[in-house]
Structure to design on (444 residues):
């Protein structure tokens, strides 16, 4: 089968019988299966032909609802997709997104934002990973199902959508009025953070992600370190995750997949050709990093090729296939679990970073950060600094060169949004440290 995230398939055979030695049991199994199918067919027939409101029970509607009932009893990622949603998902793997641009997960009748898509209306409005959608256009989520919620968020370009959001540490629900638009998001971008330290961000794994990452890396004249940013990357095409990992690994397993037969393990391996030099890499992840991005982080972590930094990832360790149905709808079906090179499963666990970094730490100059302790009266005391002393003398560097030297001087040249990125600044500092303590190259 062609391995792409969602391993796109055109047909599914589920009546195969394995093991000729058990032929005596086969007729009974087939008979039981046909009885179940006959019961389903009869039930649908009588509903269609005898229900009081004939307009409410057309055949296509009944079949869709039957499939929806079956998939709804399985895992959260197995679902029947209406024609429009199926077509949209097919476009998504090409980097074309409609609606407001949110990747969601259905958990116990809750719709959780895994990540807003970069450049989308949701991203620009400030919707965050971890937000919970409580209502769509005023309709409470508990009153609608996941499929309907997905349909409600999609719509014609230019129309508005009102999302009610519950956010951690916020006393009241937030409301976001979004205007739907059709956008083409570039999945990969990059720039130099300093003369020799590069930055590359992959927002989702699309058809051209690995190719574009190569172009970015080749565009750096010299590179002594790389920050690979996979934060809020919800995943995408599995083969692209493998190819991205392969850019930095010379050999060994990248990912293993196991389907319904635990004895059959498929493995993807790295190749020496096309591997970039062994410069240090820091991979940034967070709770919005899922699926394919976890494959990359897990592979580079297990091979000790990169330092994983940030917060624990989402924990989606399963593989889905997309199956087109005759009426234009699609079946998204979980067909396998995947494992890191050290055979770790991250399903519902996630990748734990080597270095934990808080994305929103307290300001170092704030009263909270400079608290010494909280006395018995409950009022925190502030630790005094030189700058708090009345009449302290002013500072002044010996030269203008000193003001612009070191990490602070380099960060000053970054775009404004990146200057405020604590995780990125920490990753950059680590790479600068690696370079500082690396043994000097011997002259031949």
């Amino acid at each position: 089968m062609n391995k792409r995230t969602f391993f796109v398939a055109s047909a599914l055979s589920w009546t195969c019988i394995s093991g000729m030695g058990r032929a005596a049991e086969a007729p009974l199994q087939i008979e039981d299966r046909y009885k179940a199918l006959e019961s389903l067919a009869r039930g649908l027939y009588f509903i269609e032909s005898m229900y009081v409101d004939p307009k409410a029970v057309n055949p296509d509607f009944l079949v869709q609802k039957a499939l929806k009932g079956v998939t709804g009893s399985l895992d959260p990622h197995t679902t029947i997709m209406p024609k429009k949603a199926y077509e949209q998902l097919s476009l998504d793997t090409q980097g074309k997104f409609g609606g407001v641009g949110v990747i969601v997960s259905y958990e116990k009748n809750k719709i959780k934002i895994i990540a807003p898509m970069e450049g989308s209306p949701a991203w620009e409005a400030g919707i965050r990973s971890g937000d919970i959608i409580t209502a769509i256009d005023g309709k409470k989520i508990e009153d609608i199902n996941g499929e309907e919620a997905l349909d409600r968020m999609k719509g014609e370009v230019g129309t508005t959508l009102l999302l009610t959001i519950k956010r951690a540490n916020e006393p009241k629900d937030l409301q976001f009025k979004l205007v739907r638009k059709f956008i083409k998001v570039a999945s990969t971008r990059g720039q130099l953070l300093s003369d020799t330290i590069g930055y590359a961000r992959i927002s989702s794994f699309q058809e051209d992600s690995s190719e574009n990452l190569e172009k970015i890396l080749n565009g750096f004249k010299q590179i002594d370190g790389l920050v690979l940013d996979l934060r809020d990357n919800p995943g995408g095409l599995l083969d692209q995750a493998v190819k991205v990992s392969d850019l930095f690994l010379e050999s060994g397993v990248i990912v293993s997949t196991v389907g319904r037969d635990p004895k059959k393990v498929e493995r993807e391996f790295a190749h020496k050709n096309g591997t970039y030099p062994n410069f240090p890499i820091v991979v940034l992840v967070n709770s919005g990093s899922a699926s394919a991005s976890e494959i990359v982080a897990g592979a580079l972590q297990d091979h000790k090729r990169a330092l994983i930094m940030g917060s624990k990832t989402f924990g989606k360790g399963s593989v889905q296939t997309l199956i087109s149905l005759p009426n234009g709808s699609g079946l998204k079906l979980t067909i396998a679990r995947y494992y890191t090179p050290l055979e770790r499963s991250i399903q519902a666990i996630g990748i734990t970073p080597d270095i934990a970094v808080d994305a929103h730490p307290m300001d170092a100059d704030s009263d909270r950060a400079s608290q010494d302790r909280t006395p018995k009266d409950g009022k925190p005391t502030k630790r005094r600094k030189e700058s708090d002393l009345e009449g302290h003398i002013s500072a002044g560097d010996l030269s203008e060169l000193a003001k612009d030297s070191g990490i602070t001087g380099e960060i000053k040249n970054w775009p404004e949004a990146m200057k405020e990125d604590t995780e990125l600044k920490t990753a950059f500092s680590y790479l600068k440290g690696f370079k500082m303590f690396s043994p000097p190259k011997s002259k031949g």
